[in-house]
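Record 1 of the preview.
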Amino acid sequence: MNTGRELRHANRSLVAKLLLCVAGSAVFGFALVPLYRVLCKISGAGDQQTLRSPAQARDIVQAGGADATRTVTVEFMTSLPTVGNWQFRPAQTELRVHPGQLYQANFIARNLTGHATVAQAIPSVAPREAAAWFHKTECFCFSPQAFKQDEERVLPLRFFVDRAVPGNVDRVTLSYTFYDLSTAVAAR
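->
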């Protein structure tokens, strides 16, 4: 009888440890977005550009005008931390832009989670030195996006590359990772 009691105790202990691991993993997953932002501020990596209001952007663009002698290729990339719950892609993979001119690019997201949810896109600009010269005036990444079940939506991005971008920068990559926040939002 003693061995049966010991076996049940060992099984309960194992189940408790496994549940603790699952809970720890879930908490860590929800903490990734704020941790990413803190890490970016400390290290200088990630999306470091200054966000501009539409009025500020218009003033900057109108003051300098477009530099028609230069072309910078802006490449758009997307990723998802999990497979199968979302479709997320740029409407075009790249756009050739003149510094100082305002442009719009679209991204397409579709909720395949099977329920209404909330998601947030986290941007990153590469190369790192180009981030200071890449300015978003309107972006779906500025706030969480609520999606109905199976909803597909076009997400607009309005941006410009500053005329003062260094001459050696001829390609900028804007990458978004799309995170499902529904469980984190429900927990608040």
